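pasting for the record
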Amino acid sequence: MQQPQSWERLQKDLSIIVVNWNSAGFLQKCLSSIQSSVAGISHEIIVVDNASFDGSRDIVEKEFPSALFLQAPRNEGYAKANNLGFQFSTGRNILFLNPDTEVVGTAIGTMLRTLDSERSAGAAGAKLLNSDGSVQASCVQAFPTILNQMLDFDLLRRMFPRASMWGCAALSAASQGPIEVEVISGACLMVKRQVFEAVGLFDTRYFMYSEDVDLCFRIRKAGWKNYFVDTAIVIHHGGESSSKAPESEFTAVMLRESRYIYMSQWLGRLYAMGYRMSTILVALARMAAVALFVTVTLGLADTVFVQRAMSKWYRVLRWALGMEAWAAEMGGLQVRHVPEVSQADVSHQLPVRQHEHE
């Protein structure tokens, strides 16, 4: 996918890429919050609609005419859509931002200053808050291992919030400056352009989930650092904890498929198979725990909760046994490429400048 040769924009300090999928209800607030946060920053906004055709084009064209709108003809995943937006960007820094976010105050400028002032920085991320103002622990993470995936219980996280296996110690650190972390959430991830290009963009084998984990790993592997910026605040409405928004069967399977791809790539096939085997044990244990809970409560447990939990862990068990082949077909088996977008699918009201040699 090459940028159209008939137009070229002057390089900006920052390109903000928002991938939309059925999130038109959030998109307007997201884009409005961006405009309030970028005063004095040379920037451009690129919105990629991932084949949802949900009215997002009308929102962008009518209310944010300076933004570039790209209509992907089909949904080929979050990573590919972001790479598509990147192909049309000019910024020396790139902010990948979810449409269900709202930027608070000068958060964007704060992250940008971190990248500019820290020569070793490859990427920077903000403190993400839930809609109720509570902190999302997932805004910083540790790289996935068999151990931290097996022990990923809300109770253990609350009891040992600073345990190194979670990678969340930065959330409770006293420092107000940038703190080096392993993984920054892709809901709000700012990367230096030269770094993003050097490590090969997002790996499009990830249909959804873990593309941010993989990118952060490659950034560190290449010698740069990932920084958590505590003073940059972004509200992430879609990131509620599982206790508030139960994990769906689809989400549960795709999350584990993405972890499997990551481990296969960076920790080896044997290790990844070990992760599958451990997931079998976890799924069986969780199903047994739900059954025990029903027995102890004499059948008075919330029926909807029980059905959801049993159904989810049954699907996870099937995935671990290799019986959910569709997950691999959506992610790891796809060829890495950027979907073609015709000129008719590109909507922009930006100044056009011919190439200097024309």
